[in-house]
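Two proteins follow. First one:
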Amino acid sequence: MDSIELLLDDVSEQLVRHDWDALLAAGLPSRASHTSPHNRPHITLVAAPAITADRDDRVGQGSGLPLIFGCSGILLFNAGRRGYVLARQVVCGADLLALHRRVHDVGQIDAPAGTTLPDAWVPHITLANAVPPERLADALAVLSTTMLEGQLVAMRRWDSRAKTVTALG
């Protein structure tokens, strides 16, 4: 699945990475276990089977970055037999919602994932995938209680087949 993502400022990224490291140190699933140099805390604006480079200029122009963002708490997404996805919930201001809709409108991306569509989007920053139900309390206990507030400073396109990222805008 390809995606268009927003990246966090350095301080916010380090706070998320602290959570990743705390989960890993506690023997829990964590995004820290993904050692790819492209693995960074991010907010996904759109995901689809293929997002081609011919849309990069349209999507990247007029992003309005940097944008202020905040996180209000922890979300759980049911991942079926694999357990739960654990994430920080992103609070959307009008500017972030407008950027999300603009990316969909100008990108004209084929078959976007339903969870990334305008009016159905749940913006979040993933902390861990596949957390077993019996370990949820352990996971919540090691996470920072610091309320995350910061800036979204860059946009990129992830190409899942080539395993590359392209800066947009």
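Second one, unrelated to the first:
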Amino acid sequence: MSSIRVVLIEDHDLTRMGMKIALQQQGELVFVGEAATGAEGVSLVNSQQPDVAIVDLGLPDMDGVEVTRQIKAAATEGKSTKVLILTLTDNQETVLAAFAAGADSYCIKDISSENLVQALKLTADGNSWIDPAIASIVLQQVRRKEATVEIDAAEADYKQVLEATPLTERELEVLSEIVNGNSNAEIAERLYITVGTVKTHVRNILNKLCADDRTQAAVRALRAGLVK
């Protein structure tokens, strides 16, 4: 795997320093710059053309939504920096505004270093990493089928995969429970099966939908009309 070039735009000095140190310790990542304001961040992204920009929403001169919008507007053909939003809030309006501006992923600031690295890898690969804390907001948006927010900019052709390997009736039932936000234990209780059986069905569902996690599977299921 090639290195992922990352820029960090964060106004809080201690947070920025801590994240910088954490990222620099990861062999797969190359930390290419940092900025404490939105204007500096946009300029840095334009000059460095990183793979991913981590953007704090609460910047002093302009919010992260506007920073995201400017980064995406400046994208050149064949080269577009992915944006991973980092924030303290799970406010619905803010979340949807960030995605509408072109954000690719969304993390809450208490994310672990391990999950942040995973989020950066997925984002760089063209997938979306959606923090579980705001997953329900995203799913509600997809359910309403409002075209203002694009959540997955580069999805695989999973519909063709499903034609070759369709979901079973039981897998569709489990998938419906996943979309409703139920845990494995809750699904097992509702469908009168063991937790181990649920885990097997979830694994099969993720494979058939070419999804990395339950949230991505739920979003794809809703878009493909597999559940409502």
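SUMMARY FIELD: The beta strands are 4-9, 29-35, 52-56, 82-87, 105-108. The longest helix spans residues 195-208.
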